[in-house]
Amino acid sequence: MNKLLAIGFGMLLAANLASAEDLGKITGVGLAIEQKSERAFVIKDIVANSPAARLGGIEVGDMITEIKSLPTSNWERVYGKKLEEVVAQIRGPVGIPCEIKIYKPADHSITPITLIREELEMPDTNGLSFE
Predict the structure, then answer these.
(1) 43-92: per-residue pLDDT in tens?
(2) What is the pTM of this model?
């Protein structure tokens, strides 16, 4: 069964919401990913005007292979992780960088990218169902 979870806007964790007025605001990088297997975390959507969208070069269908959640941490493979674990590594405090290695199926390349987490407005989900 495929699971879809938004990084930065779909999964509302109690830790991210201080009050009801924070409901439309989430900290993240603006990616939605789907876990298709224990190895495959596929980018399903990119939030307009988010760190991921402004950086460019990330496309729907690209896959996340490794994450470095803090500048002082080591690269960690996503293989064998649960979707919630991957999301927790990518989310974090505003202004702190998160590094992600992206596999591009079109040319079989792996590209490291750095995204700076920021507060995002919760977008229209365009009919997507987020957990």
Answers:
(1) 999 988 899 999 989 999 999 999 998 878 889 999 999 998 888 888 88
(2) 0.75
Left, alpha or beta for 49 (phi > 0: left; psi -120 to 50: alpha)? left
Half-sphere exposure of 24 (CA within 13 A, CB side): 4
* Sole residue written with tokens 């307009």: 48
- Spell out the long-range contacts of 79-84 with Cβ–Cβ below 8 A and sequence spacing 24 or more: 79/38, 79/39, 80/38, 80/39, 81/38, 82/35, 83/3, 83/5, 83/33, 83/35, 83/41, 84/5, 84/11
Burial 79-110 (b: 16+ CB within 10 A, else e): eebebeebbbbbbbeeeeebbbbbbeeeeeee
Q: Count other Cβ atoms within 10 Å, centred on residue 60.
A: 11
